[in-house]
Amino acid sequence: MAHSHAMPSPMALPGVSKIIAVGSGKGGVGKTTVAVNLAVALSTIGHRVGLVDADIYGPNVPLMMGSKEPPQVGPGNMIEPNVTHGVKTISIGYISPGDKPLMMRGPMLHQIIRQFLQQVNWGELDYLIIDLPPGTGDVALSLVQTVPLSGAVVVSTPSDVALEDARKALEMFAQVNVEVLGIIENMSYFTCPHCHQEVDIFSRGGAERTAKRFNVPFLGSIELIPAIREGGDRGLPVALAGPKSPQAAEFYGVAEKLIERADAAAGAQDIIEIQ
Q1: Hey, what's the torsion of the CAs at 111, 114, 119, 122, to 10 degrees?
Q2: Of all helices (H) and strands (E), which one includes residue 54?
Q3: Was domain 13-274 assigned CATH 3.40.50.2300?
Q4: Rounded CA gap, 112 and 92, in Å?
Q5: d(CA 164, CA 174)
Q6: Per-domain residue ranges of the chain
Q7: What's phi and psi for 252, nearest 5 deg?
Q8: Cβ neighbour number for residue 66 with a 10 Å cutoff
Q9: Can you tell me the distance from the alpha carbon of 223 to that of 250, in angstroms, rounded to the nearest whole number?
Q10: How confident is the model over 25-79, as pLDDT tens digits?
Q11: What is the Cα–Cα distance from 167 to 162, expressed in whole angstroms?
Q12: Does this model's pTM top 0.90?
């Protein structure tokens, strides 16, 4: 790694208003499901949205968005993103499809992240959502060196193990000076289809308590419902059903809160710059 003075300084993407990373401390908490449904929800309520699948080793966005098209390369060697469900999307899964595991080292990884941001023809976007790989590794660092992030969202389940890892993600974002716009509790509770009682499989409320403890906003909880997984498996994210759908409503609630938080963070930034 070069010395700190050689660190590339992040460059804004022309035409892109807010860039938000979605991260988690560990795998298996449904981070990509949340990223995809947030992107679709933001797009459905009228925002221009892009989605970067920065999970280079396990890209699930193509499956969940239901799109396999290899991207076209346009003038100036710019990559044209796929447009699926109204969202402009790029993923390594479009470029090297199939089940071949990708063996990549740090510098290569950094190169791909840079390309996905700077060499894709994003056009005008209100939100660019970036689905990070699980954990707190190189990709997040590459990201903050490449573009100025408006903030990050941390996804966790209510289980103690996931929360412990979510705290690591919070610490990582703090270390690289990225504001955490909020925590989302995924797979929060399950409603029994027979007796309609809510069952707390993973001890609900843990993420909200963690958010309070770390003084980070809580953006909401997403119920554990088969329709969410089925939608992802079929490439039809549940958020496509719209804000009035009981299965999708929570994603829209989270999206609204995220918009509010992102605006507040941007406002605070402006004040700091004015001073």
Answers
A1: 150
A2: none
A3: no
A4: 8
A5: 16
A6: 13-274
A7: -70, -35
A8: 15
A9: 8
A10: 767 677 788 999 999 999 999 999 999 999 887 888 999 999 988 889 988 889 9
A11: 9
A12: no
